[in-house]
Amino acid sequence: MKRYLILFMATGLPMTLLGIPFTQEHGFPLGPVLGLCAGVFVGGTVTIVFGIPHHRALKRRAAERSEEAIGVHQVDNAQLPLSYDRAFDLSMEAVSLMDCTVQKEDRFRGTIIAKTGMSSKSFGEIVSIEITQAATNSVQIQISSRPKQRTALFDFGKNLDNVDKIIRFLNVHSAR
Question: How many domains, in total, are found in the chain?
């Protein structure tokens, strides 16, 4: 809900401020009212046009997750019966199959940071993977995906898709 209010205010407020020139043209009571109506109309339209498809895309895919799953920053964990080195190699392979550009990889710390290119759903994402040794022949992997653009309010499920793709890949290949 907070996301939709931010979008409404970010798009509606500038339109409301454009009502100031209407005051000079149409007089005091009518100018601000026209500006306010324009702001409410534009803010509501943009919120509906972008908010509803984003909400539907994530609700369908994140039904079992909490309300936080509706956001653009997605994080998930997996514990797999793999050696540390095998988990790191599989994670690198998963990232390369997603057409990501690896920005940083550190086998010793168990971190991989990669960036995706622009798509129809976003301006690109930053995918992070952290691998820690959980027990003998078992690792804990945390996958995180967020928009490159920190001000992004909507991604239409792209970051959730990134996280799910990597977890599916790791689960399938850890069984082999």
Answer: 2
